[in-house]
Automatic annotation (TrEMBL):
Cited function: Acts on leucine, isoleucine and valine.
InterPro entries assigned: Aminotrans_IV, Aminotransferase-like, BCAT-like_C, BCAT-like_N, Class-IV_PLP-Dep_Aminotrnsfr
GO biological process: amino acid biosynthetic process; branched-chain amino acid biosynthetic process
Record PANTHER family: AMINO-ACID AMINOTRANSFERASE, AMINODEOXYCHORISMATE LYASE
GO MF annotation: an example: branched-chain-amino-acid transaminase activity
Protein name: Probable branched-chain-amino-acid aminotransferase
Cellular component per GO, a single term: cytosol
Assigned keywords, A-Z: Amino-acid biosynthesis, Aminotransferase, Branched-chain amino acid biosynthesis, Pyridoxal phosphate, Transferase
Biological pathway: Amino-acid biosynthesis; L-valine biosynthesis; L-valine from pyruvate: step 4/4; Amino-acid biosynthesis; L-isoleucine biosynthesis; L-isoleucine from 2-oxobutanoate: step 4/4; Amino-acid biosynthesis; L-leucine biosynthesis; L-leucine from 3-methyl-2-oxobutanoate: step 4/4
Enzyme class: transferase
Cofactor requirement: pyridoxal 5'-phosphate
Record-listed E.C. numbers: 2.6.1.42
Length: 287
């Protein structure tokens, strides 16, 4: 079956889905996006991702294009038309189409809305999680508002490509103080030498991950000692465990950083347990 995309009010064959050459998402990366995991055709962490989408739009002063209820219908219909049972649905909202000029276009310019969906079997991620993955470190050269989920992802693309070229699954970005901020498309975690579960505090220098928030809550319910505090590359390499979270990777154990083995070089009990808990809840609560 050929894929289907939603573009500005219509569902079109994926290969024919286009936006105008002067769409501001294309010209200026002037837009935001969100991604939902799909379980059995239903959307996981729906409210969290929708709330973050609205926050990102408001922070960039992009008009909200439709009601939450209307957008939910579009997302679900795109999933249905693509017959996605396990996978992802992606939305991108830009400031719309206007003559190329840096200031905002005239008031009333409608935002562009693009939605796509694709199958991504859970079995592939489960296989990786059972073995653990490699992570590298990379300088963090992103802009200062990483809390806004914008489509301006070139630094993230370069970091992810660096990871790929070194045989790793992810790049953890490092700030000017030698502290890890987050991954190129994930939030970074360790279980430190003292046994504390640590992840960076959510200021403007990291994305406020929806999966991250869910995992924090689960960890607290499990009675784990948690610190939202930055950690250095050296601390990460000395950690008992390391892992990252995201809407597509869920909870993914990292067994090496820059070639240095983490713990005993195998997925640890904390990451393994949190992945199980997250997947159970995501399936149960998906809408």
């Amino acid at each position: 079956m050929s894929r289907v995309a939603y573009v500005n009010g219509t569902y079109r064959p994926h290969g024919e889905a286009t936006v105008h050459v002067e769409d501001r998402g294309f010209q200026f990366a002037d837009g935001v996006y969100e991604v939902w995991s799909v379980f059995e055709g239903r959307l996981a962490d729906f409210d969290g991702h929708m709330t973050r989408l609205h926050r990102s739009l408001n922070e960039l002063r992009i008009p909200i294009p439709m009601t939450r209820e209307a957008l939910e219908r579009v997302l679900k219909e795109t999933v249905r038309r693509n017959r996605v049972r396990e996978g992802l649905v992606y939305i991108q909202v830009t400031r719309g189409t206007a003559r190329r000029d840096h200031p905002f276009p005239a008031e009333g310019t409608p935002p562009s809305v693009i939605v796509t969906a694709r199958t991504l079997p859970l079995s592939k991620g489960n296989t990786a999680a059972a073995k653990g993955v490699a992570v590298i470190t990379h300088p963090d050269i992103r802009w200062g508002r990483c809390d806004i989920k914008t489509v301006g992802l070139l630094p993230n693309v370069l970091a992810k490509q660096a990871a790929k070229e070194r045989g790793a699954a992810e790049a953890w970005m490092v700030d000017e103080m030698g502290l890890i901020t987050e991954g190129s498309s994930t939030n970074a975690w360790i279980v430190d030498e003292a046994g504390k579960l640590r992840t960076r505090d959510p200021q403007s220098n990291i994305l406020h991950g929806i999966t991250r928030a869910a995992v924090l809550k689960m960890a607290a319910e499990e009675g784990l000692e948690i610190e939202e505090r930055a950690f250095s590359v050296d601390e990460a390499k000395r950690a008992r465990e390391a892992f990252y979270t995201s809407a597509s990777g869920f909870v993914m154990p990292a067994v090496s950083i820059d070639g240095a083995k983490i713990g005993d070089g195998r997925p640890g009990p904390v990451a393994t347990r949190l992945r199980e808990l997250y997947l159970d809840q995501a399936r149960r609560d998906a809408i």
